Amino acid sequence: MAAMNSLSGAFPVYNPPLEPYVSILHRDADLLVLDKPSGLLSVPARHPALADSLATRVQEKFPQALIIHRLDKDTSGLVLMSLNRKAHAAVAAQFEARTTKKSYVAVVWGRVEDEEGLIDLPLAIDPDNKPRHRVDHDNGRPAQTRWRVLGYGENTTRLRLFPLTGRTHQLRVHMKALGHVILGDEFYADGAALAAADRLLLHAEELSFRHPRGEDVTFNAPVPF
């Protein structure tokens, strides 16, 4: 699993996967649909050691490409990039207006007894534990996630998650609040739940939106776990 730790004054450790270097699921005149691997940043960070990212890799071949939305480094799955400014504005506006439809697959620790549910808990960055976030009823921004059970493993549950908002670490913090952290989550899991997977078991599987040319489209990225 790629790691990125920042001990006080320490050099960041970042070993993003190199194979596949870039996975393009769809390309047309306006958009690229990409499958980001776990462990790769969506965009470069400020530190020079964290320059490698999905965006910079794609821009080696498509210099005009601009990223429309992001995934956490440890989350895999669908990411859109535009190939012209008109397309970028058209799709970015849908993310801003929350008219896109997204679904993720996650494997969480423990058995989730209900078949489905809605988590409605406001989130804010944890000022004492950055970059982690937390439920914060006083200062948090509204955040909602629908979830549905897909199946069970040995003390684990496979879920489909539908984020209705797009807060940082939303799915990860909401699953923790549900009492079922995502396996392999280095920020919010510990003990057996952290050790149970060599990566964060969270994947952006499906994305639906209105293509800049006018048609409704849906893209899928196979779940790698």
Automatic annotation (TrEMBL):
CDD domains in alphabetical order: PseudoU_synth_RluA_like
Classification via PROSITE patterns: PSI_RLU (PS01129)
Record GO biological process: enzyme-directed rRNA pseudouridine synthesis
InterPro entries (UniProt xref): PsdUridine_synth_cat_dom_sf (IPR020103), PsdUridine_synth_RluA-like_CS (IPR006224), PsdUridine_synth_RsuA/RluA (IPR006145), RluA_PseudoU_synthase (IPR050188)
A Pfam family recorded for this sequence: PseudoU_synth_2
Gene Ontology MF annotations: catalytic activity, acting on RNA; pseudouridine synthase activity; RNA binding
Span of domain Pseudouridine synthase RsuA/RluA-like: 30-176
Protein name according to UniProt: Ribosomal large subunit pseudouridine synthase A
